[in-house]
Amino acid sequence: MPPRVRFAPSPTGYLHVGGARTALFNWLYARRHGGTFILRIEDTDAERSSDDMVSGILSSMKWLGLTWDEGPGVEGPHLPYFQSQRLPKYRAAADRLVASGHAYYCYCSPDDLAARRQAAALEDPVRMYDRACHALPAEEVARREAAGHPRATRFLVPQGTTSFTDLVRGHIEFAHEHIEDFVILRSDGHPTYHLSVVVDDGEMEVTEVVRGDDHISNTPKQVLLYEALGTPVPAFAHVPLILGPDKKRLSKRHGATAVGDYERQDYLPEAMINFLALLGWSPGGNQEVFSRDELIARFALDGISGGNAVFNVEKLDWFNQQHIMRLSAADILRRLRPAIVGAGLWRDTYLTSESAWIARVVDLLKPRARKLHDIVPALTAFVSDEVVYDEAAVAKHMRPDGVRDHLAAWLEAVRALPALEPVATEAALRALAVDRGIKAGILIHATRVAVTGQAVSPGIFEVLELVGQARVVSRLTACLPA
Ligand code: GLU
Q1: 391-478 under CATH 3.30.465.10, yes or no
Q2: CA gap 55, 57 in Å, rounded
């Protein structure tokens, strides 16, 4: 049977990088094994959940390319995929548990509980629920029900221990004496997380629950619920937390934690996916840069390590550059087209008569781009007649005595060349430098500033070829005194 896994975010905030990594592991696992990836929105906490957060989460998932097979907008056999629309199912499950003796009604108000807890605080600071309502005689329960007393439903934790085999952590055992009779349905009819997650994972036939380590202590309660409901218990894989470089839990102190921030900062989704995949999972071997398909082909839950994973933004930057390098020029142009249009630099001929030339320009600029959009301003010198001069570069490389005379001679040499083929152009420049008894660098730097306006650029001879002889001549001319 192909696996069925799910990502179950609570829409009480943006999609955090930790959540995205959990979603990614589930997605990779499903894709690797031809399984189903379910997206379920756990919005039973109406006060803390919002539609904006739901749309933010969905949009970050889409940006990352984590497509879901069942869930909002796609639907599927177990709809609805919003827990707030599934409340009757949880109530019915709670009723079943009461009827089978696995749960009982609790009429204790929060004030009663607080008062009793306070009274006992000295002897027992971690006091658990005292089961007062479990001891109520049937007639008393009937009387309170008839009177419409508000009541919660509590799970009756049996004696013993619960164990499960975590696919990451191995065998885990919890003694029930440390688990109180936890509430499964609140007095307002809303389920607690334990009940809704078990009912839904059961009904949605989830086979593996892959989620953050912070849920490990919840798992025995959920295992107890599965058993009491007679639902097969899924396998669990608890993924280690993501830490900041100081080894503390990743938080805003460390920088952006929302996936949307990385999207706005112009990281490629491919880079983000690659980076997140390797946070806590290792494919083995030395390869680090992986496409989406390569990740799918290699993903295995047993490659998840128990050690915590450190979020290092320099590493993300590195992945970003690696993935920019892997994009074809045509793909880059497609992605950047709106920005190129916005900068007034777009021509439809990039797609037709100029396509080979613009592809060479983009390929030349690619290795220097830290972010994809760095390519847009760098295009200016190639595609437009306007050059934006960096004053500091002009001062440094064009003002020193004699530079303009050297440039004038170089302009004549450029004019005399049949074309600006890089090897020939470089030979001509070096010959001129020898002739004039100067370092070639003086001509190279001055030419770079004259042609691109900037002190840094890709290899100048490739730049000159792609800018084209006519523009190079007119830019050099413009830099010389009339
Ligand atoms: N809604 C829960 C959360 O956001 C999901 C926990 C789980 O995956 O079981 O933490």
Answers
A1: no
A2: 5
